[in-house]
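Course assignment 3, question 2. Fill in each field.
Student: A.L.
Task: Predict the tertiary structure for the chain below.
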Amino acid sequence: MNCTSMRLALIPLCVFTGLKTLAAGSDSVIVRSDTIIVNDCGQRSFSGKVPPGNYSGIANIGNNRYAVVSDKSETDGFFVFKIDVDTVSGKIVDVENEGFRSAGTINRDGEGIAYFVPASTVFICGEADNRIYEYSLDGLRTGREIAVPKVFALSSANYGLESLTYNAVTHRFWTTTESTLPVDGEQATSVNGVRNRLRLQSFDDDLQPAEWFYYEMDAPESRTVAGAYAMGVSELCALDDGRLIVLEREFFVSRRKLGSYVNVKLYLADPSAAVPGGMLDKYLLHGFRTGLSLFGRSIANYEGMCIGPQLADGSMTLIFVSDSQDGYKGVLRDWFRTVSIRIHPADK
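Answer field:
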């Protein structure tokens, strides 16, 4: 299976001048005069090699090995997966589980994980306690944690810290809650049409808070009562030039289950083009939808995203992992997906 051009676009970002930012409803700010090409390589599952799980975060820890966190693992800690990606097509060739590395403490509803290059450690954010602890690569806590501002402790249950990313070039961590903090306004539901307004918070290598910005999500597609519903940012990915890729995810579960769907949108945001404490502009890179019907069970609740290997043509890959709720009733599967992105300088 080769990559398909679900969105293959040459997009000079300067064409957004004077237009309204997609979903943000405010005048756009030019990020760079770049050309962006996005290819979607589709999704695959690897049952028998990957145990059914609740995978919610992923980080590259070197070569083709990735630390993967589950929000319902037996203890706090992380899995290590070997993920092989074809460097020409971008397709995931194979995934193998190399085992779980336990911290020996209770699971904190781990949602995001990032590899901290300076110390060769990982950090994991927990949605249950809204804290971000450091772990050695054998899974044990080091005793250090990121100084998360107290406002994040006010998050709603199941809508706390969801995302975590780190970039060794910019020396910045980034995190955010899944939905709007109560102090910042109303949260999106399946019927109210509200746009979530999130705080994207950064931290330096010294684990202290740095700049933060507001980020406004798209309005929900849903306008009907759901059996279950989750609308929020499920992951961030920090790029070398300081920009962020933001994964917006709407998960609608119908009362009859059939007709359930997940909408995923990837946006590019540039903190350097905004004032700290202000609103980030965003630009749509790619979007896709998976669903559950009589004839298809492609539905995938993508919660984890990280940068994968560079392809032969210079493209950057993004690797996604989904939460199958432990393979819920044999219907949901643990899907993996790759999307390649190539950014070229615009012609002068």
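Instructor remarks: DSSP finds no helices and 20 strands in the chain. Residues 5-33 have pLDDT under 50 and may be disordered.
Grade: pending
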